[in-house]
Amino acid sequence: MTALISFTIYLFFVFLLAFFANRAGKSKSFLSEYFLGSKSIGLWAFAFTYAATSASGGSFMGFPSLIYTHGWVLAWWIAGYMVVPMIALGLLAKRLNQIGRIAGAITIPELLRRRFESKSVGNVATALVVFFMFFFLMAQFKAGAQIMATLLEGVAGYQSLVIAIESATDGMPWVGAADGDYLLCLIIFAVSVIVYTTFGGFRAVVWTDVMQGIVMGIGVLVMLVLAISQVGGLANATRQLDEMTPPRHVTVVLQSDGPLESEIILARGDWILMKDEEGVVRLKSTELISVGEMESHPVEALQITTPAEIAKVRKLVDPKISLRASLIEEPILYAYGDSKKGVYVHAPGPSKDSPAGFLGVMLALSFFAFWNFSGAGQPSYMVRQMAFRDTLTLRRSMVMVAFYFSLIYFPLVIIFTCARVLLPGMEIHPDRVMPEMAAALTENAGVPWLAGLLVAAPFAAVMSSVDSFLLLVSSGVVRDIYQESINPNASEKQMKRLSYLVTVVVGLLGVIAVLHPPQFLQDLIVFASSGLGACFLMPMIFALYWPRTTSSGMVWGMLSGGAVVLLLYLVGYCINDRFGEYLLLGLHPFIWSVLVSTVFIVTLSLTGREPPAALRERFFGQV
Amino acid sequence: MTDGFRWSIGDAFSKVHGMEDQDESLNLRSSFEQARKEFWFMIVTWVFFAGWTTTYNGLFAKGEPGVPVEIVLGVPRWVVFGVGLPWVVAVSVTVWFAFCFMKDTPLGGEEEGE
């Protein structure tokens, strides 16, 4: 409850900032202000809006779950971030800002349209931004709802509200099939973000990003100190990790000695002793056993295999539960790492699915490229690079973000390798390891109210990403579709109303789409980042640095990049029967998309008619 | 002759002869070329650090079966030399790049300001 109060105070400040942002932008041109903050973003705002948008729900929810599941190898997986501030901020920013100003553009599709004086370039860019950005929105909404659920769990009245929502939506198509608690949390989260984004526009998004960036930084540092002290020192945690072996996914039945005299409800996450009294399993779902029964239905569970962990979790078994678990099927072993000590402290890291382990050398290299170049190719970052005031702001921001990322990403690896030691069995719901860890650390330290601030960190990350994506999608619709193609003479008042309306509608569509979220948050985020990076990285580099690039080269460069990512994900789905990429020759689809996109742009530009001299001079100066 | 004096003569000359557009175009060209130089520096930097982490970790991150992990500063040794150290160097290069190599450029176009 105390966590919820401190979290509510945090939300209050977010709305306050949106209110002031709305007032601050009143005297400016509406569209430029609403979507780009009048291109006047200074050092702190630029650095933090970039960093906070980058550190999305993926960094604070998906990344911790990967660290927890695969161990220290995630330090290598994320190593590309050491040069992200230089590459992702520096590669395009200066030219992007300059060309954006010369073209008088507010959005990325608009910039491309004017750079090539081609409507088809702008239309293709708009369609691709809206398509891939929607997957991002879905992932962030899911992450936001999950954090909200952790906060509200145990709050008086929450369960009755959940039951009320479930009965109200029962029978409704699509909505009715969603879990009541997820639906409630999703609605609370979505309404908060949609309201402040709609009300405050880009300036509110940037200002709240600054606050959220600071909250994230403080949250991570506090967690770092608490985690290291509670685990008995980092070296101790690493040594314990070295002894660990991956858990096994099992199916069990829960048996009692005789017919039950009263109904038993076992919650997801409950620990149960095995029949031999030696092993321990953790339930993956809620199970109800009725009066008179002696045995449950088959239940999925997680079996811990490390002796030290077993000794630890045996203390967590509720002594009132007399039921014992018996395996009814062969356990599902990790494809790499089962019974193997040291997998959590060495590469390639344990993997449930891949016999080659989690991170091979080629995949590690792919990710080193992915974080940098896919980051540079994200329209949500590009639009920020169009908004900084001058190049001095850019240079200083680069340094500030370099220190900021160092303080965020490496400590996250430390915190969640410690989480493996402190919170066994989180594989039943790895995406929730961040809020669970925040709650556990603060409770152990006797400061439960601090959990509100720590949980606010990932929540801030999710919010600062959702608001940016919302604006990006709505700017695509309002500026690039409506004003450009439907009503070029729309008045300022019409545009204002439409911008508010579209931001709300896009947000609501995101909520509806994510009522039945895909299982893997991080997979969805990597897919959306790859798609956007594939569509925009190489086309934008050529548009900014190669005067010879033609509009047909651009159109096919964007389409081919996106198509390669879609195709390799489709192949991955067909082969693995789950959402995920196909690693052709061990390389991530993003790498292939960059290569294919480059071939299309260069070939079509060189074989096409040279762009007009006036156009080249306008954007590249006199030769 | 000071730069200021040279510029003021240049400005006056441009105004008299309507050469402002040409100056702007030349400035744009030189800022484009500077940006292109910075672009290639960043690509080379990326190759260097990608090479460092991939080579070092490819060789040493796997560990020996049955041999306990070697710990330096509380973390596995390969993390220190394959991720931590290059990270510190990369941040230093970023600082040098931002303050010494990258040049300020007038961004031009419409500037609304606050």
Overall description:
The mean pLDDT of chain A is 85. Chain A is built from 23 helices and seven strands. Chain A has helices at 2-24, 30-36, 43-54, 57-70, 74-77, 84-90, 93-103, 108-116, 119-152, 158-169, 180-230, 234-243, 307-314, 361-376, 379-385, 391-422, 433-444, 450-486, 492-513, 521-545, 551-576, 589-607, 613-620, and strands at residues 248-255, 264-266, 271-273, 280-283, 287-289, 299-303, 324-327. In chain A, the strands form two sheets. In chain A, strands 3-4-6-1-7 form a five-stranded antiparallel β-sheet. A two-stranded antiparallel sheet of chain A has the order 2-5. By secondary structure, chain A is mainly alpha-helical. In chain A, α3 (43-54) crosses α18 (450-486), α18 (450-486) crosses α19 and α20 (521-545) runs parallel beside α22 (589-607). In chain B, strands 1-2 form a two-stranded antiparallel ribbon. In chain B, a hairpin with a 2-residue loop joins β1 and β2. Chain B is mainly alpha-helical and 114 residues long. In chain B, α2 (20-60) packs antiparallel against α3. Chain B has one domain. Classes of the chains: A mainly alpha (623), B mainly alpha (114). The interface between A and B is large, with 68 and 60 residues.
In short:
Chain A has 623 residues and is mostly helical. Chain A contains 23 helices and seven strands.
Give the helix/strand layout:
The complex is a heterodimer of chains A (623) and B (114).
Chain A: H1 2-24, H2 30-36, H3 43-54, H4 57-70, H5 74-77, H6 84-90, H7 93-103, H8 108-116, H9 119-152, H10 158-169, H11 180-230, H12 234-243, E1 248-255, E2 264-266, E3 271-273, E4 280-283, E5 287-289, E6 299-303, H13 307-314, E7 324-327, H14 361-376, H15 379-385, H16 391-422, H17 433-444, H18 450-486, H19 492-513, H20 521-545, H21 551-576, H22 589-607, H23 613-620
Chain B: H1 3-17, H2 20-60, E1 71-72, E2 75-76, H3 77-101
Antiparallel strand pairs in B: 1-2
Helix pairs in contact in B: 2-3
